[in-house]
What we know:
Layout (H helix, E strand, L loop, with lengths): L15 H12 L3 H10 L3 H5 L4 H16 L5 H19 L1
Amino acid sequence: MPIYYDENVDPRPINYDHALAVEAMHAALPWHERMVIISEYTQKNSLFGGMDARARIRAALRWIETTTGTRLTEGEYKIYLGMFRNEVERKIR
């Protein structure tokens, strides 16, 4: 069987110090906020593949509510995502 290479995968090597720092930041979040990050990064394609951004957010909001019991708005979802991205940028630079 031939090896599959995804053209969308970033070929740069993993910076393990950065990865560990981001992992620690993610682990410190409340569960519903962690799930926002999971929805946008680690499970984006497997759970929400083929969806545009708006549909993905709506599906993620349903998934988060079903799993945690916490109902988020689309605005809150975007705020949590933006806050995490900003925090990563500040701490990793």
